[in-house]
Amino acid sequence: MAQAEAVVRPIVAVPANRWARLRRAPTLLIGIALLAIIVVAAAAAPLLTPYSPSALDMRHTFEGPSRAHPLGTDNFGRDLFARLLYGARIDLMIGVFATLVTLIVGSGVGLLAGYYGGRLDRVIMRIVDIVVAFPFFVLVIGLVAMLGTGLRNMFVAIWLVGWISYARVVRGEVLFVRTREYVEAARVIGMPDRTILVRHVLPNVITPAIVFSMTDVVLNILLGSSLSFLGLGAQPPAPEWGLMIAEGRTFLATAWWMSALPGLAIVITGVAFSLIGDGLADVLRPGG
Amino acid sequence: MTGLPRFIALRLFHLIPVVLGVTFLVFTMLKLVPGDPAIAILGIRATPEAIANIREALGLDRPFLVQYVSFLGNLLRGNLGESLVAKQPVLQMVLERLPATLSLVAMSGVITAVLTVPPAVLAARNKDRPLDHAIRGTFIFGLAIPSFWLGIILMLIFSLKLHLFPVSGFGNTWSERLHHLVLPSFTVALALSAILIRNLRAGVLEVLRADYVRTARAKGLSERAVMLRHVMRNALLSTVTIFGVNLAFLIGGTVVVETVFSLPGLGAMLVTAVYQRDYPVVQGITLVFAILIILVNLLVDLTYVALDPRVTFD
Amino acid sequence: MHSSVRKYALLYLLAAALLAGAGAPAVGQSPQSGGELRLARDADSATMDPIATTQNLDLWIFINIYDTLVRQGDDARSIVPGMAERWTVSPDGKVYTFYLRPNLKFSDGTAVRAGDVVFALNRARTAKEAAWAWTLSSVAKVEAPNNTTVRVTLKQKWAPFLADIALFDTAVYPEAYFKKVGAKGLAAKPLGSGPFYLAEWKRGDYILLKKNPYYWDAKNVRLDAVRFLVVPDDNTRILKLLNGEVDAIGFVPFSRINELKNHPDVNMVLDPSTRTDYLMFNHKKRPFADRKVRQAISYAIDREEIVRSILFGNGEPASSFLPKGAVAWDPTLKPYPYEPGTAIKLIQESSAPKGFTTSLLISAGDVTWSQVATFIKEELKAIGVTVNIQQIDPTQLIDTQSKGGYEMSLQYWTNDIIDPDELVSFAIDYTQGGNSFFTYYNNPRANQLAAQGRVESDPAKREQIYRQIQRLWYEDQHMLALYYSPFRNATRKWVHDFHQNPFGYWSLTRAWLSKR
Fold first, then answer.
1. Which of A68, A276, C432, C460 could bridge C425 with an S-S bond, Cβ 3.0-4.6 Å?
2. Gap between the Cα atoms of A179 and A205, Å rounded
3. pLDDT digits (tens, 9 = 90+) for C234-275
4. Distance CA C510, CA C496 (A)
């Protein structure tokens, strides 16, 4: 695989001014704005709604939108708007927290594997192969059994598996960069490896990882929600969006909004992160 | 042996430690999880005495390593053991369900290619114009849609309202099966192509500006030849890697789609087997998945070589 | 009357009659023979070996392939002849003699020998993998004095015996066949003398049963074939029914019942079941050993509301831990009322006056339980009890419960045997190996009453004993009975006489199809 991952880089013209590049990427700005709205809404939930996400109100079940309940109620009379807001906290945390750790760990592993090569590299790639081939579902069940239920085991499962993409991507970039003259020069003048890695290699290889992490956030939110959907992630009555979709599934024919709205929330949040990812790709990787 | 055959042989040889590693880890993990097939069989009437009897009947009271080694022994003889719950040979059970999963993966791959390549190229060539924005916008949405939710919506619209596609199941003849696979494959492909299209578009853009492309155009090569021979080859490189990784993940992750569309595939069987702690079946499916994933990786590597003649074998 | 008015009246009546006839249900239509019934359910069978499983998924299928000496009546209260046309009991109650019907055959045409019955019964009670051996623990020996008689000798007088031997694990298959194919062969290719035989089994996809021409009552079996399809997703299953791809579906979610009841193409078939849903307490964990705590929790749960908003009215609050309508069920008991005031008073008098925090285990993927657990969690806040819901996979749930590693949990029971002893011994008698349904409730009075019930042969006295047991349960509430719920099937209008008896067996011998 080592040789096959070396990608030839063409030489392209780039606008040097960072702000000029920013202006060329409205997607980034829109994405950030959208995400900001979601984050603020999640943080300010108690100010935006008087309802608790888990308070039952059996006299007002399955209601449509109204002055009292802007997005209606579910089968327990719980206010859907409140549930979506408090659920945003959970899902944002899933997306960001899971991704952040895998980004850092995966990139670190890829950096080391690509730079030092040799046996370290071979061992790491072997581990990667095994992790890739390990059935994710079995892993999750095992973690639930050993660590108990809830969000925690979902995080651990994602951490154990999600670092691979970053490791591979960064490693590929490092393989290319380490043959560059400035790295050679640094080594010749006796700069310690650690300094070379941090100051010269890392900034040049981290870009695709960061771009991918935006997509990864979306994927992790989806993964988290499908685990909750299977009953292995967030536990009822948590307003996690995937769990809400699962709970609403049985009412799909009559109260379709119970599943539709959290699905829409996932889409909107995902779009925000995707736009940021697209924008970052435009800004950081000149020429596309 | 040199060149291609040696490359393939070496990769297949590397299959062995990976497979061993994975099956051992899976076996260990399952053993650490509370519950065993005796409980699954007995249900709530699981009195300690009944459990002990059934465990003995199933050979579960042997030491842990003995059980694993006997699994390996069977494997060498081409035998995947026997399901503890259904008492049928695992190999046979797996082979019965393999076509559904394989067809789903294959068809998803094909639809993904169709959904990814033309739009990516169109978007790149019309960069920053409305078509580009429309395509990118569509796929930004596509990425964020949960597949299990999409599956239900598609079913409601296409099966119940429009009666265009069957609601679920697998069908009996190959043409029937194709028909049944369209909706589930489309659900999977949409998610996958949303991931790939950004990457491919970026790759195409990057290459379109490259020197050698300008050279080729200056030499008078037709646009189509430029695209096919120079642009696509290079643009596809990193996309193919991501495709390979995700396809691999897909193979293990067809569970949700198989459940929603009631496809009798390996993913659904894995879930049931894990719930029932049917170790031989879990091992068998894990083995098949691991082999499939490695084969997919091998294919990806070979595609790399085909695309970029500068790359050589070890 | 004016002649033209009369003409109009006649025409009108004729038209009305035609319209009524076209749209009316097939009341008064006589049963037709033939056709294949396509029935969709949520999961596949694993095995067809009658002794090796406790899963309804398995037994509800092979109960149609095999036959037993005697069978449970559809009213769930009586025993009726099966392969045996009559039987006698010795005066000391220890020897039962069964007389087989003449010319019984298996579905491959071979004759049924008494020796086959003996072989099957012995395997059911002695094989290592026999999951129901304990039901036949009263048996000393089984013999075939001649080719059409089977004699069972018990160790002592045993009131539930006939009910025990009517259970599906006593299904009969040829000894020679078993010796040839073994347990593995029987599990995949069963051979019985029941109303149907297994024609095809595509695992994960469908099971096809065809009418057995050699069945002793074949002339009363109306269907030609039954196809059990596997459709795990609830919404998909209903879509297939509405699409006409299947004729009947089982396990209709509660939330769709009322809609299907009103659907013009669908019959919603709700049959009484023996299913009771419980809230279990582990008495080994501190607050639950205190009766006042348990009673407080019982008063704090609004069962009517559960039935109304989670079952959508399709069920009722449970009054006893025995299934409604079962033998010895006490009709004078009423469900615990919803009295939050009483609950608060009781918790304050208990050993945990300030409440406590606890966990509630449920199976992952069970839609109804997820809602019940959520509801209970909210209700118990009123008495200061904080509940953390944990979904775990079903096998781990049972494993945890059987090892006493839980605090509260939801569970359910369905009867397999007509006799009340099955549930009583399991749920309330600590000495019988079930640890009182995993609650570790050990009340010597309950144990004693249960033991009496097992040996009392006078039906009236037995009834009294079981009433006492139920009243004792009502006071102690060692586990709470929450609700009863029916079997929930839906069929298209061209399916008739399709029901599930209280044990869950579909009425496949009586069901019939009219034109689709």
1. C432
2. 13
3. 888 888 898 888 999 999 999 999 999 999 999 999 999 989
4. 9
